[in-house]
Structure formats: structure tokens, C-alpha cells
What does this fold into?
Amino acid sequence: MDLKLVNYNIGYIEYQSNQIITLGFHNSKKLVKIDQTILQNDEIFLFSVNRSDALLGIINYHNVEYFLHVKNNYLICTKYINGETKGSLELKFTIYDDRFQIEKDKYNYIIIDKLEGTIFKLDGRLFEVSHNMIINKPNRLKGEKVVYMKIRYANYYNFVEYTKKKDRISLKSFDYSDFQNNKLKISFSRANILNIKTKNSVQKVKISELKLRQHLRLDNSLEKDLTFPTFLRVGKRIFVIIKNSENGNIYIKFNTRINLMLKYSEFNVQNKYNHFLLKGNIEYKENPLPDSIMTNKGKILSELKWTNETHFIAKIKKRDIFKLPNIHTSLYLSKNNEVLHPLKRYNIEKKPSKKIVYTTSTFKKKVLVARLNLANNISLSVVPHSPFYNLYNQFKLNMAYKISKSLFPKKLNLYFEKEASKIGESGSYIFEEIMKDPSVGKHNYYILDKKSKDYSYMKKKWGRNVVKRFSFKHYLYILLSTSFISSELSSHVISGRLFSDKLNVKIRSTPLYFLQHGIMFAKPVDNPMAAGFHKKIC
It folds into this structure.
């Protein structure tokens, strides 16, 4: 069972696995749980819901698409998009040229090219932001139109079009949003022509020209109907209509979301009793007036409270973080359930953040972490509980950190295996061989969890050179270490997943003698599995 698409404008992912998918609706406590028993049906009406007709998601099961959508105030799971059943999606066709013939198969529509016999199925691709080729280098008749047909459903547009530059006929699919601005009406003459209509104005925008020039002038008659800035989205791109403060002209602008909107942004997250308190300072070029914090899975975590034009606070409940479906979750600012931009720390001076990890909290045998990710965006992580994060261990770490500033050992080698919890790999064997030479053994220490079945044996054999994991001595020796020797990544000197600025800075700067197998996996080469490895290997 694969969740192929979710319309985050109306819903979000509550839970996802290979057997069960649970989706929710914005501004509602209703959840829909989809399992294999539901997908045994060609079509099933699930429950009533007070929503406009809209697509919630598409699920692929055994290479068959199931469309989860609202129709006539019912949530329906169906295979049908060809109008043949009561619960089918209803597609609206507008025909401009008779080159293609429309027919139905069991669940879908198909379009047939009368000239070349090509058959193309209209399926879930109708609801993706994509271009899908139908015919490459087609034979075209004199007077044949460029746009053959338009297919509409809710806020989704599809055009079957010929593109002269690429010499192909394609299905061009996208959706749009006006951010619930009732003064604005958006439509499209073709995939590249955006029509902007207000009470007193109708204007056409060539999207390719806007992308190239990044701003186009519009007629000033828009000023009678709109407040500025006015935002709209086409596919994955956001545009903004503004009034220039110097010359009074009206323009539509395009850029990346960050460059279009942000001047400066800085954040801080504090741990409170039952929530994380997020404080933001944002200066906008064009202010979209965000109202909520949303996850990358579409769930609203908190409303924003703006204390002035640039500062806001938000309370994210720990129980909501605990329930997030993924280990790591990026956060976004949104407006009317529409994603605007990530919670990115951004400023023109490019000053590095003093904090990577903002705060941590132990909650129901898990550790909740608010931090910056590699893209400089705020992310929430939910990781297994570890003693490292309790108050006593944080006290030991802080004391060790202060003391380490006045100590400068010439050599201090630390050995460890996975999660500093075992022996039996290369690290422990080399440690024991080194310890047989008294002249060098005194600078070498093996880190081992007291719960390990081998702890008593190692402690009895090597005494003070075996250091108990999570002890004061453990933290101090990490901070004083001159090298790591292990068949695991450096973070395993304490924990595979470690969220601590004090220790991470030191661990990343300490040379690692990487043993045994897996060296190519861990080296920072062009390997996506090595994306978290950021240090030199000795």
C-alpha cells in the first residue's frame, strides 16, 4: 500500500505504514483509516463530511489507484474517475480540436489519437504537477490547434497541448490556489497563460515570460479591487502581486519562495511544561501574513500569535510532536492551510547560528528535539529515550565542558562499538591488543555501557581504562579526546543519534580511525546514505 498523493490543502497524514494509512482533515477531528479490507472494494462510501468536493489523496495498492475524495458531503474511496458510478470523480472536458477521441475503460478515461493510433490513459497523473508526453514528434495537420483539450476537476487543470519547441504533444497537469482570496478569480487559457480576474479587471500573464523576467507590469486597475501584496500559487510556484511604493505601478513577481518573501528570519525554541514555545522574528519583503505552523506532512501544529509586525510566538504541544508519523519533521509557515515557506533561519549576513539544537525534552519514553537541519530549517525529531537527555546527565555534561576548557592532554584515544554498548568488533580487538603494551596503553580508553553483558569482564580485565557510558568521566574524555578508533561512525562514542551542540562540535572535529567494513558507506562521497557524515577520516 503506497500513498501516492495527499492534498495538503484539505488534509494531512496522521499515520502511514505498508498496511495502514490514516489521514485527517484540517479544522476537524475526523480521521479516515485506510487498510486492505477497505481496498477490497471497487468503491465504498466511508462517512459524511461537511466539505466541498475535493480530492484528499491517491493510494496505490497492487498497482491499482484508489481515489479518496469528498463528493456531495461524503468521503468516498473509489477506483472510478470515469463518471460511471455514484462515487466516481467527475472530470469536466472542454474540446478544442477533434484530433483525440475520448473513451472510457473500466475505471478511467482514455484518449485515442485518431491520426497515429496512440492510446493514453487518464489516471492519477491528472492530479500531479507534471508534464507527461503523449506523442513525440507528431504528424500535425494544417490548421491543427495547439491546445486539444482541457480537463478540470476542482482546483486541478490539465491541458493536452502541442509544444513546438520540443515537438511533442503532452498532458500538462497542475493545480492552483488563490489563498482563499474572494476578490481574486484565477483561470487558465492554456498551461502557460494565467488569467487574473477581479471585479474591474481581467489580465493575462504569460507564465514562461514571468519566470524569465521575474516581474511583469499589470494594469493599475487592479488597485481598485486588491489589497497588496496578493499571493497566488500555480503548481509548485508562488507569485505575488504588488504595488511599487516608488512609482505606484502594479507588478506580478516570481522567484523562489525564500527570495520572493524573506529579508531576514531568526528563531528560538524553549522547552516548557507541556509544549515547545517557538519565538520567531521575520522581516518580509512581501508579507503573506502566515497564520499557522504546518508540518511537511500537512498537519497544523500551532496557530501563530503575532505580537507586532515582525515577531510571533507559537505553542507546539508535546503530545502532538510525539504523534508525528516520522522521526524527523520539517516545519513550515502556512496561510489558510496552504504552505508558504519553511521555517528557515535566513539573513543576508549569513551568520552561522549559535545553536543547532534549540531544546530537548523527555516525553513518554521518547526524546523530543527542536533543532536546525542541514538546510537551516527548523525540524522536530522524535527519537528513542536515552539517559543522556535527563537533567542529571546534562548537569554532568555541563560540568565536564567547563573543566575540559582548562585541560589539554597530548593524546587520549577512545575506542567503542555500536551505541558504545558491545564488544566483539574491530574496535574492541584493537583496544585489547594496544593495552598489552603498557607504554602506550595508558592513553587508551574503551567506552562501554554498564548494561552490556561484557561490562564486568572488560572492567575487571582493564580497570580504569574501561569508561562507563553516560558517566562524568565519559563526557569529560569525549571533550578531551584526540582521536576515535571504531568500526562505527563517530557519534556512536555516545549514541547513534545525538542532539547536543556541545558534544557534536567536538565529535565532528575529532579524527576518526575507521576500521573494518563500511568505509565507502561512511566517507562523504556522492552517496545519499552518507548524507549525515561531515568530517574527515584519518
User: Anything to note?
Assistant: The chain has five domains: 2-78, 92-176, 178-255, 263-385, 388-530. Residues 388-530 form one domain. The longest helix spans residues 391-404.
